[in-house]
């Protein structure tokens, strides 16, 4: 009987250590899979594989020196319209591809630059700035009262506006 109970205790220990090892393995994989997602803080879900700038000043500097247009997305984490547009933007393969040709910045706060709120501080709004650091007032969404607002249903308009920001660049510079 003593042998049987020591064997069952031994087997129980093996089962427990295997279960613990499995849990430890899970924790490690969670940490390692979370690590490559560091840029998530800057992309905030708008395109994790894209390169995002940290500040408005850095974005202006990069636009000027790389000769690429700057695309600024103003949004709020708790705004349902911002969340819906973010989802449409992130899932749109052509937009994600074209976005690689821009200096990108998404802001969840307002800057002191009045040029970034030409018609008010609403979200979501998307503005384009050319490398000469001029806000492109000619590239707007479909609303006359909120010129730079886009909804998920406007995603193709946003795409063509991105193309417009690229095209004018080639002809002007």
UniProtKB/TrEMBL annotation:
GO terms for molecular function: dystroglycan binding. It is found in: Endoplasmic reticulum; Secreted. The keyword Endoplasmic reticulum applies. GO terms for cellular component: endoplasmic reticulum; extracellular region. Residues 1-21 form the signal peptide. Keywords: Endoplasmic reticulum, Secreted, Signal. InterPro entries: AGR/TXD, Thioredoxin-like_sf. It comes from the Eukaryota. Pfam families: Thioredoxin_7. The keyword Signal applies. Belongs to the AGR family. PANTHER family: ANTERIOR GRADIENT PROTEIN 2 HOMOLOG, ANTERIOR GRADIENT PROTEIN-RELATED. This is AGR2 protein.
